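Tokens as discussed.
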């Protein structure tokens, strides 16, 4: 926190009070809608926001949600949204997806928020995103077999006169560079995790 005087003892208690008073109704409604279906996770998905601030707030809030909802929310964020952001933003989101203790410690030790900004904007944004959190059903179209004679492939070989090379070494170099950047970012996240623990 960027506060000149920051009280770590009351910080966790203030977060608990904020979440229990402001978000308790939404947490109860998320738990009350029970769907008894063994295929629930394969037929439905969570509708998540796209803004980085919203994803960070939801990642932080997920540790105070009931366990079955929190795990599902963190898994959706990790699987669906994490690949849309830059490496620096991914590292920031991963700090909140580690554990409850790790996310609180990261907020305390980083200089990203002032306590007024954290409680006035960040947690309020998380509460708004929690209110807009919905499950959406996956619409799968039934594909019926069609009657046909012969094979689907009617000679897909490209004539020699139109053949173009499909291998470019510069793309390999670019991919190697991207993988090195990802590895560096993973090492940075691991170092921050070790530093905070």
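Sequence:
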């Amino acid at each position: 926190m960027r506060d000149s005087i920051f009280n770590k003892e009351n910080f966790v208690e203030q977060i608990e009070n904020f979440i229990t008073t402001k978000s308790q109704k939404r947490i109860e409604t998320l738990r009350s809608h029970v769907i008894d279906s063994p295929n629930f996770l394969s037929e439905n998905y969570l509708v998540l926001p796209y803004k980085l601030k919203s994803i960070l707030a939801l990642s932080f809030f997920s540790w105070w949600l009931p366990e079955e909802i929190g795990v599902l929310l963190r898994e959706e964020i990790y699987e669906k949204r994490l690949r849309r952001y830059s490496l620096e933003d991914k590292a920031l989101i991963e700090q909140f997806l580690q554990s409850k203790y790790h996310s609180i410690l990261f907020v305390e030790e980083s200089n990203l928020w002032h306590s007024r900004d954290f409680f006035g904007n960040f947690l309020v944004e998380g509460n708004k995103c929690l209110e807009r959190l919905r499950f959406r059903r996956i619409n799968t179209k039934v594909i019926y077999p069609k009657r046909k004679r012969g094979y689907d492939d009617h000679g897909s070989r490209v004539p020699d006169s139109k053949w173009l090379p499909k291998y470019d070494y510069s793309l390999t170099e670019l991919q190697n560079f991207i993988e090195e950047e990802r590895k560096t970012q993973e090492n940075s996240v691991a170092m921050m995790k070790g530093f905070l623990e």
